[in-house]
Amino acid sequence: MKYMMFVCTDAEPDTDSTGSEDIEKWVADNDGRGRRLDGNELGPVSAATTVRVRNGELLVSDGPFAETREVIVGYDILECAHLDEAIEVARAHPMARYGRLELRPFAGQ
């Protein structure tokens, strides 16, 4: 199954610094195992543009629409046998401790 993993900041990161993982190591390991199909860091929130159409009118605004301290900072597309495997992949990601990871299966799988 394919999963989109949103990599997000978190207002309350883990304060235990023991056993910190290196993101390059996580990427290399999961790329090597064929579990990470694609991924990238996103630009800053200040570079975001929100696009909506309401009553036929195009509305474009700078930045994200929602006011929040927790933002999506990257993504990874995972190929895992099942949700439990995707959870284990996410658990090993460094942002699991410093941010949060949201896993979503692609529709129709």
Automatic annotation (TrEMBL):
InterPro entries: Dimeric_a/b-barrel (IPR011008), YCII (IPR005545). Residues 39-104 form the YCII-related domain. It holds the Pfam family YCII. It comes from the Bacteria. Belongs to the YciI family. This is YCII-related domain-containing protein. It comes from Nonomuraea jabiensis.
